[in-house]
Amino acid sequence: MATGTGYALDFERPLIELEKKIDELKALSTSGSVDFSSEISKLEKKAKKLQTEIFSDLSRWQVVQLARHSARPFFLDYVQHLFTDYFELSGDRRFGEDTSLIGGFARFDGKPVMVLGHQKGRTTKENMSRNFGMPRPEGYRKALRLMELAERFEKPIFTFVDTMGAYPGIGAEERGQAEAIAVNLEVMSRLKVPIISTVLGEGGSGGALAIGVGNRVLMMQNSIYSVISPEGCASILFRDASKASKAADALKLTAKDLLEMKVIDEVIQEPAGGAHRDPPKAAEALGKALRKHLGQLSGMSPDELVRDRYNKFRAFGVFSGR
Amino acid sequence: MAWFSKKPRIAVVPEPATEPPQPSRMQGLWAKCETCDEIIYRQELEKNWMVCPHCEHHHAWPARARLGALLDADSFEEFDKELEPQDPLGFSDSKKYKDRLKSSRKNLGENDAFISGVGRIDGHQVSVGCFVFEFMGGSMGSVVGEKVARVFERAHELKCPALVFSASGGARMQEGIFSLMQMAKTSAAIARFRTGNKPYVSVLLNPTTGGVAASFSWLGDVILAEPKALIGFAGPRVIEQTIRQKLPEGFQRSEFLLEHGMLDAIVHRKDMRAKLAQLLGLVG
Ligand SMILES: [Zn+2]
Prior knowledge:
The complex is a heterodimer. In chain A, helix 1 (13-31) runs antiparallel to helix 2 (37-56), helix 6 (137-152) packs parallel to helix 8 (177-188) and helix 10 (230-237) packs across helix 11. In chain A, strands 1, 2, 3, 4, 5, 6, 7 and 8 form an eight-stranded mixed beta sheet that branches. Chain A has two domains: 10-57; 63-314, 2-enoyl-CoA Hydratase, Chain A, domain 1 (Alpha-Beta Complex). Helix content of chain A is 48%, strand content 16%. By secondary structure, chain A is an alpha/beta fold. Chain A has helices at 13-31, 37-56, 60-67, 75-82, 124-130, 137-152, 170-174, 177-188, 205-209, 230-237, 244-251, 255-260, 279-297, 302-314; strands at 84-89, 101-108, 111-118, 157-163, 195-204, 216-220, 224-226, 266-268, 319-320. By secondary structure, chain B is α/β, with parallel strands linked by helices. Chain B has two domains: 29-59, no CATH class; 61-283, 2-enoyl-CoA Hydratase, Chain A, domain 1 (Alpha-Beta Complex). In chain B, strands 3, 5, 6, 7, 8, 9, 10 and 11 form an eight-stranded mixed beta sheet that branches. The chains are: A alpha/beta, B alpha/beta. Residues 33, 35-36, 38, 52, 54-55, 57 of chain B line the site of zinc ion.
């Protein structure tokens, strides 16, 4: 099944071309008198085999590319699939509105919750208005406001991470980008409601973590989470941005890596070929995981939730000595 | 200032042979000020707390010398000195992370980029920590994050103020996601510390950027900075590449941040101890 967006990664291309050919033959079969059915089933078998070949052993750099795929479902796509009654709330009440980090009340399985996440654009125009999913301090302060609202009304919080990082700009620095992120980290650590954070695509450094301090941290199968982008790491440490693929390996930034290092709680399996090939199926898998973890957390008292989250983050780190 | 003429008390500052790899012009008997180009007798510069007597430029000041000069005589008791970094990712770029650690350790006589413990300022007990910028750019990995978190836990336990001097390029890439998580860990420790009623004073030195700026460093109840320190989230080069324009003069310097409401005060090095003592007298 082709995605129809026209955009394909290099390593996806052979598969997509094959699928196009199958579609063409199907169209000919239905319109004409010639029967291509044996040809079609042969090609479909070939496509399936090719898909397994390509996606069973992706390199880390290929996962990075999938995580950034412009056809990948974004925050609002998942909201549409998994939540009802979404009521978006705007503004930080301090300076402005930031459409790269959005959220509001919604219902999950009929019950009111708070959802918030980074929102990327699919087209250049959308990306311009979403600032490529890179928040300024206003975005983080709005997120904080929303999370504090959720705490006041005793609603669980779902956060969805998908950003290259916090925006590096003059205004952002003037208005305290670092301070805004820091405050979120502190406040999130002590909120008295369940928080479940999921990395959907890119988990870019502090700008991602600023909404990522959850009782549970989940990652989609083809998402990444890293202290620095592979390009940034390559240009600093290898002095060559083109060595990004090497840097991706060194950083160990895939969902699989993070699960192995016990930094995250679960990897959510994506449909074959990646979430963008079947967004409803990806959403279904995510919904199932969210339901499970929320169920586990909803038995905990407010103090237990805070302690659980605190202990989780307090324990991170690898060193010797006591 | 009476205290100003006293010699640093914790004289564990390494001698030139084991000194941090500073610009060559800062080595030897004479130093050249990187701002005004004046040649200064090195001893004079050290006596002047590494502040240029001609232009007031605040040069890098080794952590132990700083703690020695700012804390009451013989009051510093170091903690967590034995914590040592590991290599959880098996990281290697042009050099192995393990080798980088080894050579930093050898050159500086420190296990990592942070020194912490308990001391006094004008009689006020403080749980204190200071970055060793010379150790891999003061980057924060697991050990730094752990020591920072413990500064706040110790302060909470002892019911005394916390004081941290930051000088760091940010999270340590070589420890990957573990470094990133130190931001959340240290900030969570502050949240717990703040259930008490003692202040956290954060002093920002040149430079304080990235994941260190965006976590505990900017969470001080009171935030001070040395003059002209570079402080911000993104590095100036990254910003320039992103917005494709030159940055304004003085951008991300202490004075710029004070003007934008992001700091409480800029404090000259010679006044730091007196200012800290005053503050601790008011809210310690
Ligand atoms: Zn000078």
